[in-house]
Amino acid sequence: MAQESSSDSVARSLVFASSSPTHTEWLDRLKRRVAQYATELEWWDDSSVPQDAYSKNEIEAHIHRATVAVVLLSPDYLASTSKQPELELLDTETKSRDLRLLPVVVEPCGWERVEVLRRFQVWSGGRPLAELSRDALDRELKEIAHAILKYASSSAPWSPWSTDVLSRFSF
Predict the structure, then answer these.
(1) Interatomic CA distance for residues 100 and 169, integer angstroms
(2) Is 133 helix (H, G, I), strand (E, B) or coil?
(3) Which of 59, 118, 132, 153 is the most buried (most CB within 10 A)?
(4) Model's pTM, two decimal places?
(5) Segments forming the whole domain that contains residue 115
(6) How far apart are CA 171 and CA 166, in angstroms?
(7) Cα 101 to Cα 77: distance, rounded to the nearest angstrom
(8) Angle at CA 51, nearest 5°, toward 70 and 23?
(9) What is the per-residue pLDDT across 7-61, written as a single tens digit (0 to 9) for each?
(10) Hey, is 140 helix, strand or coil?
(11) Cα separation of 88 and 77, whole Å?
(12) Number of structural domains, the chain?
């Protein structure tokens, strides 16, 4: 799915995706799954943005517009000095408005040691996507895409304890 301009997405909810630059394949896999909901969701990630001072402003602007933020967790993501401030801004936005944060572990990592992440439910009990079989991974990505759509289209106030998807998370 191509990244859209804001004028093309007036009626769609913005999904902000954050991942390590070394894991674009995970980002692309999820983006392809979310593409089936293109009439309802606008996808944005920083994969096409040059890493400079301008990109920081652009990233922050998209975080402020997002309805759902997906964070793809890996050792590289957790070690990235540029992703830590981004994660903290996402945390701040979840506290100040109805931004829904969906952390997904793509590779085994110490996400439990990151204070910000301990406040959120982590998809599928923190089980890394990289450990799934091909068929199980396909099913999991489909479920994640559906959860993103559900979160984006919900008019109810955001609660990280919603029972409909509670079984997919770890606290």
Answers:
(1) 14
(2) coil
(3) 59
(4) 0.83
(5) 11-155+162-170
(6) 10
(7) 16
(8) 45
(9) 453 569 999 999 998 888 999 999 999 999 999 999 999 887 776 656 888 999 9
(10) helix
(11) 13
(12) 1
